[in-house]
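Hi there, hope your week has been kind to you so far. Would you mind checking whether the tokens look sensible for this chain? I owe you a coffee for this, so here goes:
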Amino acid sequence: MRTNDIITSPEQARQDARAKLMQAIADNDKAGFDQAFNDMLGAIESDIMQRHAEQMDEVREEADRSVLAQRGVRQLTSEEKTYYQRLTEAMRSANPKQALLNTDLTLPRTVMNAVFDELQTSHPLLSAIQFTNTTGITEMVMSQNGEQVAQWGKLCDEIVKELLAGFSVVNMTLLKLSAFIPVCKAMLELGPEWLDDFVRQVLYEALANGLEYGIVTGNGNDQPIGMDRQVGPNVTVSGGVYPEKAPVAVPDFQPATIGRLLSLIAVDPAGKPRTLRDIILVVNPQDYFQRVMPATTVMAPDGTYRNDVLPYPMRVIQSAAMPAGKAILGIGYKYFAGAGMEREGRIEYSDHYQFLEDDRVYLIKLYANGFPMDNNAFLVLDVSELQPATIRVTTIDPPAASSNADLASLTLGRAALSPAFDDATVSYTASTTDASNTVNAIPADAGATIEITNTHDTDQTDSYQNGQAVVWATGSNTLTVKVTAANGTSNKTYTVTVTKS
């Protein structure tokens, strides 16, 4: 090997193949897709063979289930182990096509569940949406009304309002996604656990790339309806293709900008407001580092940086399926996606592709589909001119202090004022038999201060706190409530002559 050769790891090879696969899907390049998918299969196979060799060297004769489990090898159920053993026998047969036809080889559902778990763990976009393992045809009942309002009334009144909700039934027929798996005969010698690892990883890549592309930009014609498409009863669908949403130009991620965008999502198609949660922002990986990261990164007081800082809680998700220069803002759980296995997950022999004698090609058919649950749930953004975050300092002159010295209310416990309180009236009388009454004076302006004094017939003047009980002397008492406005100069005095009998 020459000294300037570059060694590519299996993981890097897989990432490169994944990027080429996405580009081939976007360009509708069948030849490019086939080549990228084959490259990915080769990377998966190399990775598994390498890990197997490394772990077998370590385990040697002690390669029992517990040791393998400690080294991260997924342990198979009895049903899974039986399946892979019978599959290996069929693949080794001189006539594998006939062997598969004569053998009831149904991929256990636990294998698919493991694939779905890994999908949602490793792909943030798929974990953010309503992702369901479904059968071939699924009926969904969806409410058309965003909220219901109950009617208040007396306890024994008749029910005056019935909660009516409009419901619609959505027939979701899943679409077929075919994946060819060339299995090297050497892979069969590694055992059921490693064959399971290979099959799951191929299913994982086929589902991850196919689903993510369809969920983001699928046009609805024999593929999912993407988040970037218009949906609803008034949308014109031409040749099975749903129209794209017009992008909204976004110059920055300032609070006012984000607030205006979210206000468009916070209304359902019926015109009713809804509370927002699980907001996602899907961006192209290159756009993230060139535009979104600079627009959402700020320096903390300690000199460190904080990434993905936005005015409203949301997840920033990178997806290679997102076209450059665009982004999607929406409610994650408002996208429904389903996937399942055709004919309960049978693997079939295929004559469509010819490989070396050491390889045999098998076909797995998958079901998958998805659609936005309402047209207002997702917005397409144009982030091509998105500007970096900046610290804005605005100088605001404080408003002039208030000159309002009025009271909003004045009460003396059980003692009634005469006349009834009015902020423009400053003199009152009251009679009481109580030894004391609590004085509550509420200013019309929060910046005002209040002083309360009581002068009785001995010319003694006592001061009280607002909300404190004033002790009356028998006979006449003069209660004064002085209000000083926030400006410190304007004031007003309310007087109450209280007669204690």
Q: What stands out?
A: Residues 407-500 form a domain with the Immunoglobulin-like fold (CATH 2.60.40.2340).
